[in-house]
Specification:
single chain; alpha+beta; Nucleotidyltransferase, domain 5; two-stranded antiparallel ribbon; 40% helix; RNaseH_sf; nucleic acid binding; RNaseH-like_sf
Length: 120
C-alpha cells in the first residue's frame, strides 16, 4: 500500500522516514525520521544546483521533505521520470508509474511489494 492509499484509509501521512540516494553503482538508504532534522550534508546535497534529482514523482517527494523538515529544495534541477519518458517516446502517458517505465525502457517491470513501499 503506497502512502496515498494509506492516506485514503487512515487520513494520515506520516513524516518522511527514509531518503534514498543513488549515484553510479552506489545506493544509500538513509533512515531520517528519528533524527528530528536532516543532516547538514544531506540538506546541502538536496539544495545543490550541481546535483540533478531524478525520480518518479520526485517533485512531490521534495515538496514533502520541504513540508516535513522546512528545507526548501523545490525546483532545484528536478527531472520527473514519467514526463521525461513520455518526451523521449518511451511511454504514451506522462503520468505512468515506475513499473511501466521500467518495462518500456528495460524490458521488465519493476516489482515493489507493499513491504518495500512502506517502512518506519
Amino acid at each position: 500500500m503506497d502512502q496515498l492509499r494509506l492516506f485514503m484509509v487512515t487520513k494520515y501521512i506520516g513524516k518522511t522516514a527514509v531518503v534514498q540516494i543513488a549515484y553510479n553503482d552506489l545506493l544509500l538508504i538513509l533512515p531520517i525520521l528519528h533524527h528530528g532534522e536532516l543532516p547538514e550534508k544531506l540538506i546541502d546535497l538536496l539544495k545543490s544546483n550541481n546535483v540533478v534529482k531524478v525520480g518518479r514523482n520526485v517533485g512531490n517527494d521534495l515538496a514533502k521533505i520541504n513540508h516535513d523538515y522546512q528545507v526548501d529544495v523545490n525546483g532545484r534541477y528536478v527531472v520527473e521520470l514519467s514526463s521525461f519518458a513520455k518526451e523521449q517516446g518511451a511511454v504514451q502517458d506522462g503520468r505512468t508509474n515506475l513499473s511501466n517505465i521500467c518495462a518500456a525502457v528495460l524490458g521488465s517491470p519493476l516489482y515493489k511489494g507493499d513491504d518495500d513501499r512502506l517502512s518506519n
